[in-house]
Amino acid sequence: MKMKFCSFILLLFLSLSFFAQGTWVQKKDYANGSNYVDEGIAFSIGTKGYVGLGQGNPFNKLTTEFWEWNQATNTWTQKANFAGSARMSAIAFAVNGKGYVGTGIDATQCYDDMWEYNPATNIWTQKANFGWGQVYDAVGFAIGNNGYVATGHNLSGSYMPDLWQYNPASNTWTDKGVFAGGGREQAIAFVIGTKAYIGLGVFLKDLWEWNSGTNTWTKKADFPYLKYNAAAFSIGTTGYVGTGDSSIGYWTKDFYGWDQAANTWTRLADYGGKPRESAIGFSIGCKGYMGISDEPADYSEFYEYTPDQPKLAQAGPDQSICSGGNVQLTAVTGAGYRYSWTPATGLNNDTIYNPVASPTVTTQYILTVTTPQGCTGKDTVNVIVGKINVTATPKLSYFCLGTDDSLHALATAAATYAWSPATGLSCINCANPVASPATNTTYIVTATSTSGGCTSTDTVNVVPAGIKVSAGLTACSGDSNVISATGGTNYSWSPASSLINPLTATPTAHPLSTTQYTVTVTTGSCMFIDSVLVTVNNNLSVDAGRDTTICPGKNVTLSASGGKKYSWTPTAGLSSPNIFNPVATPTATTNYIVNVSSGGCTGKDSVLVAVDSLPKPAAGNDTSICKGAVVNLSASGGATYLWSPGAGLTCASCAVTTATPLNTTKYIVTVTSVSGCSGKDSVTVTVNNKPVIDAGATATVKLGASIQLNGSGGGNYFWLPGAELTGDSSATPITTPSNTTTYTLVVTDVNGCLATDTVTVFVIKPSCIGSDEDLFVANIFSPNGDGKNDVLQLKGNGITNVYWAIYDRWGNLIFETSDQSQGWDGTKKGSAMGTGTYVYYIKATCIKTNSELRLKGNVTLVK
Hints:
77 strands, five-stranded antiparallel sheet, mainly beta, single chain, five-stranded mixed sheet
């Protein structure tokens, strides 16, 4: 977008604040004034700047020329031409003493190639193509050991939305994510420390900060107006933007500085040359350089900018600490910056950017920052040391019970107060609380200054003053008794006529009649009055103790009170009748009377000692059990019970319990009555062993044969199962088993104890031989539900392909099956058949001979 400058631009800036800051000095024109560069590239390495590419002379001709400017000699020297194609709107940056140039556009195409320039050899080397692809009007910059490219667009009009990082060491590109400000063209970029700043562009004025350490974006203050095609550079902690196009397309020469710490833009001294767009900009050390661009007649001029003082040093806001405290100061950092803090007093290190300050008095620290290029800047920070002292009074206070006593706190600065403990105080956050503690208390007051939060503490002791007197008492006429008072320093009792030592805390009183003694006590500034009543009564109040109950043969200690001399009656069963606590061992319930005297006073009382009868325990009758069985034991006759031995009992302290003794055992139960008297009884549980029996030896028989079982062990016999036995209660029954059977013998001895044993009779069934005799069906059965012979079965070994059927005498089919194991239960379709003769027909195959077997016969059904 090319537009000539006109005077309208002057009107545009009349409303903008203007501060003539910094100085511009014209330097040697680009290429001795014979050339210019529009939308070219520029970067600096050390004390030299490099400019090239763009539209050159003649007008609008793209060039590959590349020139070096020497800051020390202010001379231009042509270097090796750019090795890529001639182009404009490319990007450039410098990393570790080498320059990098790439992307851009010519009349027909966009570029994505990247080239490295080595000033030491004056040689160009092609590097990895730009990671996003072809782009122009992008921005390039470097941070540390990496270069970066952002924004711009391609020939199709698509904006590049991302920020890309180039690593020269590995010759690789890495996408760092989306630029938060969005894609744009003809933007500006500059770097301060480890952060980059990208913004402005066609019809835009925003500015964005990128933190290379966290890869995060932060929106910063907008540029004062819409601006694009501007030039930018940074010095110290300030970014500079100047020249370029305004929002209505007019060329400008205004120049602004952006303060990193304050995030504000300031209008500075205008660019020293003519208004222009697409100028180049870079900085060397503490100076910035801007110029060249568009049309050879006027725009090869090149200017140097010197800030009034770069904002290198930023020491941070003033800090406040309390006496004895510290605070860490923090300066803005930059690569290779050197730091010097003065004075060094109170600093742990005066040459780092973040020393810890511990001054004893308020101190202003001056920070001097020097860049690797020799730029310096200064800033100051005040560390204000706050102090506060608090005094609490009075140091010792006597609090007279029943009155108020105020405490007082006074701080040397405006402060808030906190008292502790809170017990006995009217308030804990006031300066003068009223204290009324119940016991001696040390109170701590903490004063916190309202400015800085510094604290100080002090203490006071509060002693509550008050008296206590002894309880009133009853005495005989002329008796001597000590009365007392506590809680004071001085004591005075009255009337003094019947007192010994009336000016002490513990005088002795011997009144002849009832007397009220008054005591006056003083302590500190407090005075208290109280009294003790001594009642004279010649009738003693005697207590012989509570009635009690004992068991026969036991004793109890009696205890009487109320006098000095004691006499008990009757004397029988007493260890001594003339003491206050004789031991009584009566054989029967007795009422003991005690007579008591003290001086001229007398009195008496009595106590009943009841002799309880012993309980009559009953443990039940002796019993017997079989080994392994349980038996219930039951006792009676008392309130509590204890069985012994307790092993094998479910509850040794219950009246009723369950015992499982292993051997014959005598159980003794101790029965105790409510009054504690006890007695014993016993019960013997005889444990009988189980009988020793034998069901005989295992036997083997052929199918259809009989065998006698031989049981032994005495007592009563019972065999299971008994279906095929001649008698199930015989010791030696005979059985004809149809299958191998295990028989169980149960024997009960004369004590009712049971024992069991088993014997197995194995039945050998012959294999099929190919004869009809291999098939067998009983000729009678009784399906009456008694569990014996209820089902008619086909028997035969080694046969297959079985078919058998049952017919009635009229030839009607009653039952048929092909399953040898399925028998006839005397029913047809669930209905019971009547008593009578039925015909069966059987067909099968002998497995061994593979011959067919047939069998017909009759069977009688009985109920």
